[in-house]
Amino acid sequence: MTGNFTFNFELFNNFPDMYFLLSKKGEIIRMNSFAKEVISQDENPESFKEIFDLIELCDRNEGQNIFNKTISERANKQFQTRFFIQNKPIDVNITFTYPVLTSEGESDEYVITIVRDITEEKKKEVELMRFHNVAEGTVNPVQITDLTGKMIYVNPAFVKVSGYPKEELLGKNPRIFGSGKHPKKFWAKVWETISSGKVWFGEVENRRKNGEPFYSQLLISPIIDKKDGKVTGYFGIHRDISEKRVLEKQLIHTQKMESIGTLAAGIAHEVGNPLASISALVQVVQRNTKEQFTNEKLAMVKSQVTRISKIIRDLVDFSRPSNYELKSTDINKTLKEAVEITRVGTKAKDIQFNLKLDNDVPDLPLIPDQIQQVFLNILINAVDAITEEKTNSKPRKIDIESFTKDNYVVIRISDTGPGIEEENITKIFEPFFTTKEQGKGTGLGLWVSYGIIKSFQGDIKVKSKPGEGTVFHLTLPIET
Ligand SMILES: Nc1ncnc2c1ncn2[C@@H]1O[C@H](COP(=O)(O)OP(=O)(O)OP(=O)(O)O)[C@@H](O)[C@H]1O
Ligand SMILES: [Mg+2]
Questions:
Q1: CA distance 94 to 52
Q2: Domain assignments of the chain as residue spans, ordered by start
């Protein structure tokens, strides 16, 4: 039987794993060529008498136990450890096989042991662990998609920024948080780049689950299989630049408003003076003519001049000349007066005004007329908005609040009108932007208000969504 068996063992020479024929004590009786080759790398290969001599010291006892169990339970067993050959570690997976099946039946004399070198696998596992830890821990949102673009991995940063739970993201195309702000061509180009195995880098606008925009610098690199050089998926990493974008937009807006202000001041000055002379001349001629036709026409000229004068006054207000005097102003009193003036307007009859004014709001050094004009502009817009509302089901009310917060006086005016379309939000503070019928609005109200508030180092913001009403939020600094 041994003869037969010896012959059979030679077969293992062709295998790429190490094969050992062991006695029931673990002594090495034979090994295949690959095992010989590995062990011969040691300067003292004779020192390996038993299989346990190859095993890392700290694992030897465990190895012995598993070996004994294999024999007592007559069942194959595996374990992972390390061999040390010429002091170099090799990660291995050991399988003890007992009893051994031969052509004559089971043999109780030997244990066949298969040792597989798993150093490469281990290395990959460690690399994967490292990548996984980095990806899970980084603040940069990371996504991995398969060839069809379906997400197969997203890290916690990605989950956080997108606002979607992980389960909703996996299996989906990243299109779900596309903002629709980039033309089809843009994405076609991205796709073309990455599917040809190249890296794509650029800035994109995405949309969170709640609809808010999210700006990022995105790098997408194809994941290439080392073996055949084929693309197997895509790795995308984002850098959040939302804050930067918002600041940029604000800066552009501020600069734009400033340059318009300079222009307005120039026009007001250049047009204002000749207009005053025209107005005076018209009055003189009117007084000196009895002819009805001329008088009628002059009256029309006068009304047109009045219209232009109003616009000029607004321009002057925006670019407040420095000869106005600041006066200690009671914000709550000014608000109440503005509400009264608005209320007497005919349109406002069935609109409810709710005032919630904090008595602790301090007086501020302002120009009372101007600040009242701001309140009036916003209140009249609110009334216009509510009156324009088609449905009768909604309450028709305007809330006016004042309070202090962190060295600022805050004034909030909210209405239940139809709200403002998203694309108009950035435009409403621009001069001559109006959605009202011709002759109804000049589109200067908010622009002038913006100019006035800014000249007092304050700020004016709007929050609005179509169908959800509008809130104007004013802040004015309390000088300390
Ligand atoms: N509370 C609001 N609700 C809905 N839309 C508003 C509101 N306030 C302002 N708007 C929008 O902003 C635009 C600009 O307002 P703004 O006060 O500057 O000009 P206007 O009211 O159209 O004209 P003007 O005030 O010069 O008579 C309005 O035409 C309107 O589309
Ligand atoms: Mg207005």
A1: 11
A2: 2-117, 124-240, 246-318, 327-477
